[in-house]
Every structure is written in C-alpha cells, then in structure tokens.
Amino acid sequence: MFPEVNFELPGWVEEFVGDPDRVYPTEEDRMRLAVELSRMNVENGTGGPFGAAIFDLETKRLVAPGVNLVTTAGCSIAHAEMVAIMFAQRAVGSFDLGAPGEPPRELVASTEPCAMCFGATPWSGVRRLVCGARDEDARAIGFDEGPKLPDWESALEERGIEVSRDVLRGEAASVLRFYAESGGAIYNSREG
Amino acid sequence: MFPEVNFELPGWVEEFVGDPDRVYPTEEDRMRLAVELSRMNVENGTGGPFGAAIFDLETKRLVAPGVNLVTTAGCSIAHAEMVAIMFAQRAVGSFDLGAPGEPPRELVASTEPCAMCFGATPWSGVRRLVCGARDEDARAIGFDEGPKLPDWESALEERGIEVSRDVLRGEAASVLRFYAESGGAIYNSREG
Q1: Is residue B124 part of a domain?
Q2: ipTM over 0.90
Q3: Domain of A27: which CATH number?
Q4: Where are the alpha helices (DSSP H) in B44-168?
C-alpha cells in the first residue's frame, strides 16, 4: 500500500568524489567539493544547482556528499543538505552526528540553507555549518529560501553550531546563474 | 561507497490504517488517525511519540501516513511529518502535492511542527496544516522544537497554507505524556 522510499546518489557522484582517504585541509577545499557537486548536478541533469557535503573535522575527510534530488527523486525534501545528512547518518550508523565519542562534523552547503535545511541542521548533530552563496543569490534566480528566522545564524551559534559564510561565494553563485541561464527548472512547490 | 538510504513504514502501519477507501470527513477524524499513529508508534517501539498523515481534501481519503522513525531509521530528519511527506509524494509520483491539476491536500500532525518540519511544509505543496498538541506540550516532556519563527502560523498563512490548531490537543498531548512516563528516549541530537 505504501511502497518504500529510496534515495540513491546519482552514479557520477561516487566517481567524482574519488579517493575516500582524500584530506580536505581547509574550509575552502571542502567548499570547493560542495560547489563542484552543485555544478556537476546541473551538468548531469540530476537535480537543482545545489551541492553539500559532511566532513569529519578531525581527519578532514568526507563523510558523505549530497546533491539536490528534488526533481529526480520526486521529493520536495531532497535538498542537498538533507541528502548529505541522510547519507552521512547512514554511513556513520547513527541519527546523531554529534553523539558522545564521535568526532566533530561539519556541514558544507553551496548555498545558505533554506528554512527547512536550517531547521534540520541542529537535529543532524553537526558542529559547524559552512555556506557559499547567500540566500539573495538563490533568490536572484527565482528560488525561494522560505520563511527563515532573520537571525538564523545567531540561532545556530546559540545551539553551539559555528557558522562560516561567504566561502567561495562567487564560485557558488556562478553555478546558480549558470543553471538559470541554461534554462534549469525553478521548482518551488505548490505551483498549482 | 555511499549505500542507498531507504525508509519503510513499520509493518503495523498498513494493517492499522486498513481500508484505503475509508473516508475521513472531519478534521477531528483525520487528527484521530494521526494521534492513533503516534500512540501505536510508542506501543510498538518503532520511534518517537509523533504521528502525521496527508489527506486528499476532495475525497477525504488518506494519501499517506507518517510516524516518527528517527531512532529506528537512524535518521534525524525522519520526523512524522517528513515521513508523511516522503510517502505521500512517492504515492502521488510528484515532489509537489499542490501541482496544477492536483486536488488540495492537507498535512495533519499530532504535534505542532518543529523548525525543520515547519520549513518543509511550504515545499511539500500541501494547502492546509492541522495540528494537535502544541509546541509547549512537546517541550513539557523535554523535546526541542528548534528555532522556529515566533509567527510561524502567519508565515504559512501568507504562503496560502491554512493552519488549524488545537485539534484533539488533549488526546495528542496525552500520548506525549504516556511516552515520557513509559521511559521513552528523548533523542534531541548532538548529545555529545
């Protein structure tokens, strides 16, 4: 009656990500991966122009990547950040990426989180959020970031989540423009 | 490298929901299902004390149920509302439950949505949100509703989503207390 719901990363992701032992020393290195995931997602036609990734801050290795799969998975919650959280928790085997004994982990998002992904960030257990393009860069091409707390950054900081913004913002925003210029669907829901 | 992520409803749900042609004429009827799902989820030990469901407002039939699967699916985003949205979109075959030509649909939640589920509501395409227990009833047993907009109700109304609150609030809140009294895990993330 209610068939199961499955999420799979597009086939190109694993190949693109490559060596699982690769170290990403700086937040720019880590953001570069998220931005390249957003670009590849557009080029491969596998979803919207958003990429994300979760890293282990001790080893500086990737835990899981995420790309926007809304249109291809047929699921409005499959934003890049949510996909990265689901795959990271699957990889780690826990719903709490910040559980006792676990290394601190970081969520890197090619664009600042929408209202949903913002709300999901504290539940994920990450200790740090790194953002590339700003909300206004997403809005500039017609995407809606939703009804977010005006002081969303402080709300995360108050919950012990460090926020770093504008990391490779120009590169991240250029993928948004590339998507819009190539006629990508702006798929805000409830279009009826 | 990144195994797929699957969500399955617990086995008892399908049997409990029963006849797919059943009609739920009033919002109390629809809330009763969500509250009973929350209670059954506790009794069966399949997750936290939260239930949800999405209904077709033309036929008044169930589109998909949802229960909280955070601890059992090992995923912090598997709140009851998110699960109902994922299964409803899977059932309907679209990431937009409010797409052109689709009937209006309603999300019924046994407790008011947390910050994440609030943010997910506009993306889902539903036209109406019905809530049972209040945020403060969830907080009273130690659950965190996250950094929500103080005027979250108006923010949804402004987006064309009608909000109805306090529907069977007493019954819904009693399930929360039952969960706490029976020693259920209060699993807010980042406990490390």
Answers
A1: yes
A2: yes
A3: 3.40.140.10
A4: 70-73, 80-92, 115-124, 135-140, 152-158
